[in-house]
Automatic annotation (TrEMBL):
Gene Ontology molecular-function annotations: glycosyltransferase activity
Keywords: Glycosyltransferase, Membrane, Transferase, Transmembrane, Transmembrane helix
Cellular component annotations (GO), alphabetically ordered: plasma membrane
Listed transmembrane segments: 244-265, 277-301
Name of the protein: Glycosyltransferase family 2 protein
Localization annotation: Membrane
Residue ranges of every copy of the Glycosyltransferase 2-like domain listed in the record: 19-179
Membrane topology: Multi-pass membrane protein
CDD domains: DPM1_like_bac (cd04187)
Pfam families: Glycos_transf_2
Similarity comment: family membership: Belongs to the glycosyltransferase 2 family.
Entries under InterPro entries matching the protein: Glyco_trans_2-like, Glycosyltransferase_2, Nucleotide-diphossugar_trans
């Protein structure tokens, strides 16, 4: 399975000025629109570039379309993951494959306008910073549910992680080679990039943009993936929940002592044992608390376990840049030629 590691930036060919990393999962509807809009922007940059399209194990015609676009867009490169690994893992795969001096990550659905890449690139060169965050100045096109959950997520993470993460920063950002090398060198596998990059603390600036509506197709972020991202974020960047468990146990202990005193006093006064209802309530409440603490501990133990196993967050099946050495598996070929 040596084919699974994509070559990193320095291994193959000259490094372009700019790499655009685009994660794609079942994006057949939006892909032609994306190419139509992205290509003129990049061609107009007057810098050499590459586009790394990371096909995150799509089950629709995305790989077929990508093969078609490969033929007449020489700057396009396709990295296909063997199975759906998720948005963050797909971006991580793209960052490892990227060869550019500057690297942009952008969604495929045109919610992040490609034209902003030019602004980011110029801002980086002029202001001599390592990171340019795309900041959403207007999210009115996202659903109310998405806006509220995202707002709560960023507020919570700001408090828990004490990081200065911009309220509306998503995964649309430009990074220098040094930044991407630093991210690639991190041992953790389930990286939440929108938190990892600010943690580095490299010099940065922001560029505002209007978040558009998804150009075609449907959101690939069901609630289950949003929850996964939140759990990864909280456990990856904060020990506060662990401390919460300790505080709960302190409170539980205090309550237990008070109860003991109460029992002793009522015994001395010859009082009758109080009803079973309160006992049941107390037992139930404390069992719940214990389970909660166990659950929190389990999250961290699980993470430690995962980190120890060093299990990759994704597997690469195919890289168009190495197409001669790296034949797609039969299964992938089947998809491509379908
Ligand atoms: N995506 C991915 N793997 C996934 C889910 C999403 O690569 O498992 C990509 C998707 O193709 C898109 C980007 O991540 O380019 C953001 O996803 P989406 O637009 O569906 O999320 P939303 O904007 O609804 O939060
Ligand atoms: Mg989207």
């Amino acid at each position: 399975m040596e084919v699974d590691t994509p070559l990193s930036s320095t291994d193959i060919g000259p490094s372009p000025a700019l790499t655009v990393v685009v994660p794609m999962y079942n994006e057949e509807d939006v892909l032609p629109l994306f190419v139509d809009r992205m290509r003129p922007v990049l061609d107009g940059l007057q810098a050499d570039y590459e586009v790394v399209a990371v096909d995150d194990g799509s089950k629709d015609a995305t790989p077929v379309l990508l093969q078609r676009f490969l033929r007449d867009w020489p700057q396009l490169r396709v990295v296909r993951l063997r199975a759906n690994a998720g948005h963050q893992a797909a971006i991580s795969a793209g960052l490892l494959a990227a060869r550019g001096e500057w690297i942009v990550t952008i969604d495929a659905d045109l919610q992040d306008p490609p034209e902003t890449i030019a602004d980011m690139y110029h801002a980086a060169l002029e202001q001599d910073v390592d990171v340019v965050y795309g900041v959403r100045t207007d999210r009115s096109t996202d659903s109310a549910f998405k806006r509220h959950t995202a707002g709560a997520f960023y507020r919570l993470m700001r408090r828990l992680s004490k990081l200065d993460i911009s309220h509306d920063a998503g995964d649309f950002r430009l990074m220098s080679r040094a930044t991407v090398d630093a991210v690639n060198a991190l041992p953790e596998n389930n990286r939440v990039l929108r938190l990892v990059v600010p943690t580095l603390g490299f010099p940065s600036t922001t560029v505002g943009y209007r978040r558009d509506e998804r150009a075609a197709g449907e959101s690939k972020y069901p609630l289950s993936k949003m929850i996964r991202l939140s759990v990864d974020s909280v456990t990856g960047f904060s020990l506060a929940p662990l401390r919460l468990a300790s505080w709960f146990s302190v409170i539980g202990f205090a309550v237990a002592i008070l109860l003991m005193i109460y029992v002793v006093i009522s015994k001395i006064n010859g009082g009758v044992a109080s009803g079973w209802a309160s006992t049941v309530v107390i037992v139930a409440a404390f069992s719940a608390l214990q389970l909660l603490c166990l659950g929190i501990l389990g999250e961290y133990v699980g993470r430690t376990y995962n980190a120890m196993q060093q299990r990759p967050a994704y597997y690469v099946a195919y890289d168009s840049l190495r197409a001669t050495e790296l034949q797609p598996t039969d299964e992938d070929r089947h998809v491509v030629e379908r």
